[in-house]
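Continuing the series of single-chain predictions for the mutant panel. This is the parent chain; the variants come on the following pages.
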Amino acid sequence: MTIVYVDRDNDGNIRGIYACDQIGLSLTPRDDQDPLIAKFLRDPFGLEDAFPPLKKWQLWLAALELEPPIFKTDVLSTVNDMAGMSGKDKETVRIMIEDAQEYSREDSRIDLLAAAMGIPPNQMDDLWKWAAQIEPI
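Parent structure:
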């Protein structure tokens, strides 16, 4: 347990967290293990809320909804054929694709794969948000 000092806006949202009290700010001491404090420290820009992690099946089901659909085997083939990537880098991406249980939108390999499959970043963002809403049957 570590005490941190929290600055909140008028709506109670966290604006900042400090290791010590700050002159001129009205800060509230809190335990850094408090779930809201821990989340802010882990994700100060709220990216987890904007782009929550996707489960493996959510990503690949969403890929099937594209026109034309994107199949995992095609992505793996595209990675295998990428010039300029070492065998180790290709294997790293293959492991990430096949063995990860969740995917993070912030992972730079997601953008690499999207570009390889011809998906522009804004479409990938929209696809990601849509896929995050898919529920198991």
